[in-house]
Design a protein that fits this description.
c-terminal domain of poly(a) binding protein, mainly alpha, 121 residues
Length: 121
């Protein structure tokens, strides 16, 4: 019976990892073991940062909304509370886009919230 070698499979597996490590600096793209470790580390970082990106963008939207509200003399938390009292369901991404691109429409929302606050008092 002929001897079975696993050379082709091993080479294929190693080339696959080295292909994924293309563009890395130094040994990280040339040597199998370090390339494999670096690719796995990169995947972990990518996974973590995909989650973090959502938090970063939400905080950016909140900062934009707050900055757009300051000239009208209302704070972010009072504005959001007023929107909820008025049953206006609009997410923070849309609010920030509205504040940046359509200040007139954003101003009308602010006026609605201010009326709600006056009615409560």
């Amino acid at each position: 019976m002929p001897r079975v070698t696993t050379g082709p499979q091993t080479r294929k597996r190693r080339k696959k990892w080295l292909k994924r490590a293309k563009g890395y600096w130094g040994k990280k793209s040339k040597l199998y073991k370090t390339a494999r470790l670096q690719v796995m580390k990169a995947w972990q970082s990518a996974y973590r940062e995909r989650k973090r990106k959502k938090r970063v963008f939400r905080s950016l939207w909140i900062i934009r909304i707050n900055a757009a509200l300051r000239p009208y003399g209302i704070s972010y938390n009072k504005f959001i509370h007023g929107l909820k009292l008025r049953n206006i369901e609009i997410n923070r991404k849309a609010l920030s886009e509205l504040a940046v691109r359509n200040p007139e429409e954003f101003k009308s929302l602010v006026e609605l919230v201010k009326q709600e606050a006056l009615e409560k008092v």
